[in-house]
Amino acid sequence: MGQDLRNYTPEDESYWASTGKAIATRNLWISIPSLLCGFAVWLYWGIITVQMINLGFSFEKSELFTLAAIAGLTGATLRIPSTFFIRIAGGRNTIFFTTALLMIPAVGAGIALQNPDTPLWQFQVLAFLSGIGGGNFSSSMSNISFFYPKKVQGYALGMNAGLGNFGVTTMQIVIPLVMTFGLFGGEPMILENTSGTLIGKIPAGTETYIHNAGYVWLLLLIPLAFAGWFGMNNIRDEDVSPDIPSPVGAFSTITFMLLIGFVTAAIGLWLMLPAKVGGSGFMVSKWIVLPIVIALTVFLLKLIPGQVGQNLTRQYRIFGNKHTWAMTVIYTMTFGSFIGYSAALALTIKVVFGFQHLMVDGVMTHDTVNANGPSALMFAWMGPFIGALIRPVGGMIADKLGGARVTQWISFVMVGSALGVAYFIQAAYASATPEQYFIPFLGLFLILFAATGIGNGSTFRTIAVAFNKEQAGPVLGWTAAVAAYGAFIIPKVFGEQMKAGTPEYALYGFAVFYAVCIAINWWFYLRPGAYIKNP
Q1: Rg of the chain over CA atoms, in angstroms?
Q2: Is the overall model pTM greater than 0.90, yes or no?
Q3: Model confidence pLDDT, tens digit, residues 282-335
Q4: Which residues have CB under 8 Å from 367's CB, separation 6+?
Q5: Of 493, 487, 488, 486, whose CA–CA distance to 507 is shortest?
Q6: Within 83-152, where are the H helices?
Q7: How far apart are CA 54 and CA 180, in angstroms?
Q8: CA angle 131, 134, 137 (to 5 degrees)
Q9: Cα(256)–Cα(259) distance, rounded to whole angstroms?
Q10: pLDDT category of residue 258 using cuts at 50, 70 and 90
């Protein structure tokens, strides 16, 4: 525990049975709750913003949508440097340090939420810093991949990612509950609109401790930082982390690489956001900005001098492999959808079903409170819960039947579910009684979440089999980085289409993308003469 490992050979069955399995299990079970907290801090703005509306914070709905979008884009961008941390800084050093960094946005959110007059820019800065939690996924998955033999990679990666993804569900259940009592003291605020928790609605006029949404994560982050430092290991073998510096040197390297990601994410956000929320006002299309942000981040990291730059040059060989790009697109379909819908679902339920959509003087309006609307905080946790719960199952099924085959099956389910959700969201957003469409809307969304969860497990099984040991870790991190932009794109697209009055168009677009992924998966891994048959 806490020591650097040498000659760690999990593919040797006798070594695995006698030594490797116990080491891998210990590292996995510290990694999982650390990753869970990363997801929670990254995506808690989707729940916090709903409660900010209920408490009457003086921000427009479109401004609140930007908080989830800012956290989403920053977290996705930080996954790019995080992809390469393990070889450069070591697994133990990385997981400890990046978990400890999550305390900064958690404490900051707790302080800012105590004052309803806190300006928007402070919440934007905190959402920006919350991106650290999103970045942690790539380093965590890369790290765990080195501890397990290929025969159980689907299971191991599914457990780490799937239970780590439970951070979304945990956050969506815990935050509404802890806001109901003064766990950390402070002055309560009074609900102006009906709120809710897992177990029921909370009427307007009730006292609420919204600042607990930030502080509560310290209860996990502090002990997890100690567990990571004293319980995890760096693997010092040639194909993992052969030349890591001292812990202080490792932390400095990680900090510098994260700063590069922060800078490029800030540039992208500035280009896209309107001037009234701190952007440039240029309103450059996200479809132009995101490739620029990705390419700029990769380029600037490559310019780091010395051993870090040499290390990155070696790891950048993944970009010359066509399977890197195929799996990036396919994983964007599965995980990008999971994380994007997770970020957007609560606010979507609030905006679509929490208001009546009435024709006034020939204009459709969406600002009359619907007294019969469902509470977003009662239902939003269900989708991420199902998607995270079923991810390890997807990995285990793929271990038996092949990853590409399982991915193909769930892709067809995703197309059908997305089209079904589009139909019911279109009907609800034009109705004075949108609640009548909520049950089929939610049911199809839950099927969509289940399909993404199974696909998340099956795609990572494909990566583990299709790439050698040295490349598999960085490829896992890279595909996760690009797919994580779903946490930005999906809330942004939903917000844009809501404003235009056509939320169903967002789902139509996603369904078309899923169909493209079906073709790519078939061409690379399932057709007669495929490059690799059903990995």
Answers
A1: 22
A2: no
A3: 999 999 999 999 999 999 999 998 888 888 888 899 999 999 999 999 999 999
A4: 355
A5: 493
A6: 85-89, 91-101, 103-112, 120-145
A7: 13
A8: 150
A9: 5
A10: very high
